[in-house]
Amino acid sequence: MGGLDAVLHGGFVPRRAYLVSGGPGSGKTTLGLHFLAAAEDEPALLVSLGEVADDIRDDAASIGLDLSAVTLLDLTLGDADHDLASYQLLEPWEAEAPDLRERIDFACPDGIPRRVFIDALSQFRHLVPDAFQFRKQVMALLQYLTAAGATVLFTAEQGTAADDDLQYLGDGTLKLERDEAGRALHVLKCRGTGFAEGRHAVRLGNHGMQIYPRLIPEDHRQTFTAEAIPFELAGLDALTGGGLQRGTMTLISGPSGVGKTSLGAHVMREAARRGERSVIFSFEERVGTLSHRCEQIGIPLTEMINTGMLAVEEIEPLRYMPEEFACGVRREVEERGVRIVMLDSISGYRQSVRGEEVTPHIHALCRYLSNMGVTVLLISEVSAIAGSEVHVSEYGINYLADAVLMLRYIELDGALQKTIGMLKKRTGNFEKMLRHFEITAEGLTVGAPITGMRGIMSGLPDTLGDA
Fold first, then answer.
1. How far apart are CA 450 and CA 433, in angstroms?
2. What is the pLDDT of residue 8?
3. Residue 297 near residue 443 (C-beta atoms within 8 A)
4. Is it the case that residue 95 has pLDDT exceeding 60?
5. pLDDT score recorded for residue 467
6. Alpha helices, DSSP H only, in 240-312?
7. Of 56, 168, 353, 465, which residue is the least packed, with the fewest Cβ within 10 Å?
């Protein structure tokens, strides 16, 4: 599995033994089956203590894994041909030919395969008199297999006494868990190599197990030219001091319907004209609805999609985990050369976090994109249409933004009008005035600076001559 190889910085170290710990249904067996199937045409061995051979083959085939080259040694307690005495790893007096060793040697007459998976080794804890004998016999078995050239995976039920004992006997420990945030993998130790620490998302589906490594921004970087990206709207370029900056994150803030997404789509249109590919990750709106809205204001979204200059991805946040979504963003950047990314919106993305704090995930994703020279547009919807207090985000991520564009409604002569202003820009100077903002059938219009008025930010301005 590519995701697991990334977590383990290349994969398992040959001739080592690794424990896979987890509760029932956490995916321990599935991970082991992927390990065996990756051997392809090389021989591999599965020693099963909990599931009969035919069921294992059927389960593997159902998720597209071919075990035709894998030898299955069925030692399930349900097999009537075995008795409890035959399940010794080593005789208590360390006989020269332990029973399980003989069974493995008999099943593999050409020698021990390079991959061995034992599912579940913790079952033997019930068949030995005490923990000392259990650890002694397991250690001897693992030494025998690794000395013969095998890389060994073995599983244990999390929280059992056997699991506690086996933690110390393997060269590495992988822990699978499931909670309200979804399935996850943690690597607790891995002797002989480095590994990515922290929580890595796991998904089990029709194609088996997929692991999505935690995104570490510092591990990804590429050189790029820090250049200005103009809006190609005279008023907006004047307001922002020449446009946005390559490789920065811009927060576009405003209440519902004020034009945040339309402004982002305009940036995408100008990128397409320059021959740059961009992508919109839409958490709230379907592609058809977004295309229809944009084409009504002169932005040919469908044409941009058909020419390959734009991708619009509908994201169901309750389906995706943050790490899984981040892997999708990385594919767009690293495989398809995307230069501009828009996340629409933070509120939608927040649903994928499922009870966790959203800030660390947004931080990691935006820092990664910035390191890769990608310009980020982050749509932030605020609940207040007007008021004396100004909020640009309700999730405490203002510190991440290199620039903040604020769209607001104001009331003039009993009618709602839109304004746009820039609150922040780290990479240069900008205009400290508000301008009228309008969306028409021909596109976006940014007017002259608003003068002679005060209280605009509250939404209820008055002229400077009024008391």
1. 7
2. 95
3. yes
4. no
5. 39
6. 260-273, 287-296, 301-306
7. 465
